[in-house]
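User: Okay, second chain of the day. Same drill as before: sequence in, structure tokens out.
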Amino acid sequence: MVVWVVIFAIHTLIIFYFYGLTVLVSVVDSAIFNLLFAIIGFNLWYVIRFNLRETATAFDTIINHLLVAVIIITGWISLSYFTLIYIYADDQAYKQFLNESLPWRAVTGIFFYLVFILFYYMILYYEDLQDKLKVEGELQTLVKEAELNALKSQINPHFLFNSLNSISSLTITNPDKAQDMVIKLSDFLRYSLSHDKNEKATLKQEFENLRRYLDIEKVRFGKRLNFVADIPENCIKFEIPNMILQPIIENSIKHGVYNSTEEVLVELTCRVEKDYVVIEIMNDYDPDAIKKVGQGIGLQNIRKRLQLIYQRQDLLETIADKMVFRAILRLPKNENNEQT
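Assistant: Same drill. Structure tokens below.
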């Protein structure tokens, strides 16, 4: 509308100053011609969007636009011309001016038509681009969810095999304990394979599932596995990615308890900092024995998941300090995780 007001003003001034018509006649002439083309131009959007958008070739598009332009400009000039002739039927000077001005009005109509279609094609291009970006974003989300699900579902087969073997032995020596272990293993697997759309769970839920895992592992390692946790109340409701702690504990057992004949301390602590909730897992380990054990998916899995969820690569830090191995998770706080 602002553009058409400017065009109307320029048209009026040109007719008034260069052709010597009165102000009223200049205003009416400009109003009739520009208002009619503005109405036609706005309706041209539907012609381009629904009829000319899906044209097969560039040649067909050009031909179609030429035909549409001829029809629109001819109709516009004819309607404007006869309207003004009707209004100024007795003004011979204006009728002469109107007849002489038809060529440049036709050129003006072509210019208006080109401006309209270029503007509309820009809108269509922008809409197509937004649709493509939306589809691409949805596909990226699906890929991300699939990758997260794949990573989260990677349970170490050796853990399952060892657990089943332990259950098999317990069925003979301690059937009640075997039954309890089967229930815990079932609950652990059910939790592991459940998929929250947000891929998040509270630290309390994660810790409860971690307890199931540790109860199963203690059947294998007995007193060699000593797990201690210190989780303050201000950490317990904090949301973290599902199944993010179990692989770290599994890594601690694999590199600390597995090759040891003595009791090994695995300690989990949590603290709240300004922008992060920090979860630290420490375990005793033998630097020489660790080289004999192959690398699993554990820490690499966690780094990939953290990168997918938080778009950062610096949230997991590992430190091997003499005889103690530490894994430090720094999870960003957000509005949902603020404690009241």
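The radius of gyration is 38 Å.

User: Thanks, on to the next one.
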